[in-house]
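I can't quite decide. Please look over this sequence plus structure tokens:

:::
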Amino acid sequence: MGAFGSADRLAGFAGLAPQPRDSGRVSGNLHRPRRYHRGLLRAMYLSALASLKCCPASKAYYQRKRSEGKGHKQALLALARGRVNVLWAMIRDRECYQVPLLVAVAA
């Protein structure tokens, strides 16, 4: 935990957080970092892929990203980035993952 100060740094280490490649007046040019942990990126990617089959919340998030116009790989990487945040919170709080209960609201 001492090596990474936040979930954002862990995501950057995994290659899931874009880094700016700005030059002169050009700004907002983001890309995948050149140096990242390929094994961690692969583990998070496969975790996101597997969660599509069994987790309704992951499916809903993936479908929302697809409806926003993102491709399969972009939507899957966005899901993996979200899972990094969950992993970080689990490590920080020293708790196991618990499936959030979906409360049906009567309309």
